[in-house]
Amino acid sequence: MQTETVKKGLEGTADAALPVLSISAPFSRSAVFPAGPVSVRDMAGLYIYDNTLMAVKLTGAQLKEYLEYSARYFNQLAPGAPADPAALTNAGGIPDYNYDQLSGVTYDIDVAKPVGQRVTGLSHQGQPVTDDQQFAVAINNYRQAGGGGFPHVTTAPVLYNAQVEIRQALIDYATATGTIDPAAFAEADWRLTRDGRPLF
User: Fold this and answer.
1) 8 A C-beta contact, residue 26 and residue 45
2) Contact, 46 vs 173, CB < 8 A?
3) How far, in Å, CA of 46 to CA of 176, rounded?
4) Which residues pair with 106 in a beta bridge?
5) CATH homologous superfamily, domain 2-188
6) Cβ proximity of 3 and 21 under 8 Å
7) Strands 52-59 and 158-165, how do they pair?
8) Do 47 and 131 meet the contact criterion of CB atoms below 8 Å apart?
9) Residue-level pLDDT at 38
10) What Rg value do the Cα atoms of the chain yield, rounded?
């Protein structure tokens, strides 16, 4: 929804040709949609904050630094240590909402590596992202204003800021679509690795 909204918002502008990526964080580990009718309450449980949608312009180098910062969320995993999902996250007390995932590119997070050296294979449409490549990145206003301390986004050029409330946009999207089908939007954009091999 964020990607499509920003793409439409950039139509007819000088930045319309930029690839659009989207940042989101897992606000709730318990939000689920059981089979059957989906209510407004279900949607509100998925996105619990009154954030609005924005987009900023970032370079490939800035994206990499952003993702490295986000990857601090994972504890470093020693060779041969069991990969216990319950013990893998929230390193240093980092809350779930300060772990950002990026869609529109693919990348690996190597949890065997120290913080700052974890993101590998950052690619867009099958090609390695170059340092000077430019992207429009959908982001919420909390993050863009500095929430969580993520790098670059507070000083990046703002490309889109139509004061669209993300939670309402999700509700509108679901209402217009009629059916929420993960096959229509779910993508495996990133994975966890250890020394270059898939962790799970």
Assistant:
1) no
2) no
3) 18
4) 123
5) 5'-Nucleotidase, C-terminal domain (3.90.780.10)
6) yes
7) antiparallel
8) no
9) 86
10) 17
Residues 65 and 116: their CA atoms lie apart, in Å, by 8
Structure tokens at 4: 């499509």
Whether 116 contacts 66, CB under 8 Å: no
Q: Are 195 and 111 in contact (CB under 8 A)?
A: no
What is the rounded distance in angstroms from the CA atom of residue 109 to the CA atom of residue 77? 12
Long-range contacts of 173-182 (CB under 8 A, 24+ apart): 173/1, 174/38, 174/43, 180/33, 180/38
Return the closest-CA partner of residue 149 out of 195, 92, 191.
Answer: 92
The least confident of 62-66, 151-155, 177-181 is 177-181
Place of tokens 């709730």: 28
Q: Are 152 and 58 in contact (CB under 8 A)?
A: yes
Q: Are the beta carbons of 170 and 3 closer than 8 angstroms?
A: no
Taken as a whole, the chain contains a residue count of 200
The share of the chain scoring above pLDDT 90, in percent, equals 76
